[in-house]
Amino acid sequence: MNEQQAKTQNASAEDAWEQGAQEQDAQKQNASAEVACAQVINAQAASAPKASALHVDTQDASQPDPSSSAWVAKLHFDEQGLIPAIVQQFDSGEVLMMAWMNAESLQKTCQTRETWFWSRSRQTLWHKGATSGNIQKVRAIYSDCDADCLLLQVDSPGPACHTGARSCFFTEEVL
Questions:
Q1: For the segment 11-30, what is each residue's pLDDT rounded down to a tens digit?
Q2: How far apart are the C-alpha atoms of 99 and 152, rounded to whole Å?
Q3: pTM attached to this predicted model
Q4: Read out DSSP for 136-151?
Q5: Alpha-carbon distances of 93 from 32, 87, 116, rounded to whole Å
């Protein structure tokens, strides 16, 4: 092996080591954020009046993982194990869509900070935007006063509706 090949091999090994160290740091940050999230949610749940909605800011690392058992246990899923989730653009307030979540899709949403729902027709989880590229980044999650409906505030880069419309709510009904 000549000197140039040895330098290239050493540089590649250093790059791989650095990338591995960065991945480990990211994993540690995610784990500590999830622990902190669980602590804040538990504190909110303990101090909140029964009819009060809970709020989790998923962009704030000091906030708890909204999938913590204390928070999820307060939610009222229907007999099929589902809860309606209204999706809203975080900065404009525009209502984008409504979908169903089960405990697993809520957990995946909390872990990835991207929307995951339960497809009642296909009987499977679906990652919103995985096919179109319009992945919704979750900014906050609220439960309503009865804990039987969720509001997900997201940053949605493109259409939310399967028709290609920005919002699923584009058909005006006559009153």
A1: 555 665 566 555 555 454 44
A2: 10
A3: 0.65
A4: PEEEEEEE-TTSS-EE
A5: 30, 10, 20
